[in-house]
Amino acid sequence: MASKDRILRQKEETRNNILEAAYSIVKEEGWQGLSMRKIADKIEYTAPIIYEYFSNKEAILNELTGKGFIKLAKELQSAKAKFDKPEDQIEAMWMAYWDFAFTDTEMYQVMFGVQMNCCSQQCSAAEAPYNLFTAVIAEIMKNSNPGPEVIKQKYFTFFSVIHGLIAINIINKSEVMETINNQILKDAIGGIIKSIQ
Amino acid sequence: MASKDRILRQKEETRNNILEAAYSIVKEEGWQGLSMRKIADKIEYTAPIIYEYFSNKEAILNELTGKGFIKLAKELQSAKAKFDKPEDQIEAMWMAYWDFAFTDTEMYQVMFGVQMNCCSQQCSAAEAPYNLFTAVIAEIMKNSNPGPEVIKQKYFTFFSVIHGLIAINIINKSEVMETINNQILKDAIGGIIKSIQ
DNA sequence: TACATTTGCCTAACAGTGTTAGATTATTTA
DNA sequence: TAAATAATCTAACACTGTTAGGCAAATGTA
């Protein structure tokens, strides 16, 4: 009855194969290009087989993101281990986080729902808000006579904080409370304004 | 030959109807629930008709985001008009930006590609990175003896900046340069660390 | 007015998606 | 060897975006 073991091992293996196939497709074609039939093709089965290992497509994405978080955690850990002072540790950790987002971009996109869309392409309407903000930033900084690159950078700093905060609130919905939002908004915006003046 | 005018006006009207129908579906079911046939149903036509007004689905989303940016710009403008000092103006503008993101959430999602995904649900693996960061933050702040809420808030502040910056880089790809990234990373992370100590 | 042409709109279809039901084949058990 | 079970496939459903072809009404021309 040792064949039971072999069968269980085989099952575990095809389960892994499905995940690996899925991830390789995601890496090649982006997570929008992932389909059950493509996975099936890659593991040399037909699509319905996958449903004996995962209840649906979302479950595969879910497990994939789980693996993503584990990998991220590992890299954070090893970044932390390189330093003793917590101030240095956290800087290294956020840098590792940053690296993770760009070496495993597709993974990061599935994990945090970042999607590239039409807006960035040629949509000229997107320039209006940008121009409005940079005009005011230039006004604030007029004493130090900054170049356009500096203003652009300050705009991106603002945008990062706000957009990031909005993203958390949209993705995590209920989790984040009003008070924290207000605090961060006031702190961050106020802080950046001060650093500009 | 005034009928030419009427026909042109009618064409313009159904074009608008398509956009309005599309947006109402997006508001009701999220932008993933948008389909050509649903739009067709709503304007009481069949799907192929839409292709006489828009070359494809993406073009509709594109025009919709265009309108979104115009609306956003308007609200930024009126927020700016309420104040005289540029410091007050930019704060009001970012607050207006924030409001826009949550009154027109679906629109904001299409405009900036924020998507809610599996990760936020029950995925317990997502907690590992969170715990790693908050542990170090607590270590840095141990002298001021902060409560868990404060630590959570500081974590979100960090995360906002980094995630926002990553999102810009993924969405806008080429636009943003290395130097700006490094500058913002160093400025923002360093700044927040100092504010924590 | 009669015919030709253009326009508006629809049906049907293609290729793709996630997912399920039922049949078929292979393997194991009695 | 026969029955039961497991593994796998085919076919289908209900969708998706998109295109081709045809029908009928409106228009332009003689």
UniProtKB/TrEMBL annotation, chains A, B:
Residues in HTH tetR-type domain copies: 12-72
Transcription regulation recorded as keyword: yes
Entry superkingdom: Bacteria
DNA-binding stretch(es), residue numbering of this chain: 35-54
Keywords: DNA-binding, Transcription, Transcription regulation
UniProt xrefs under InterPro entries: Homeodomain-like_sf (IPR009057), HTH-type_Tx_Regulator (IPR050624), HTH_TetR (IPR001647), MT1864/Rv1816-like_C (IPR025996), Tet_transcr_reg_TetR-rel_C_sf (IPR036271)
Name of the protein in question: TetR family transcriptional regulator
Organism: Flavobacterium frigidimaris
PANTHER family: ACREF/ENVCD OPERON REPRESSOR-RELATED, ACREF_ENVCD OPERON REPRESSOR-RELATED
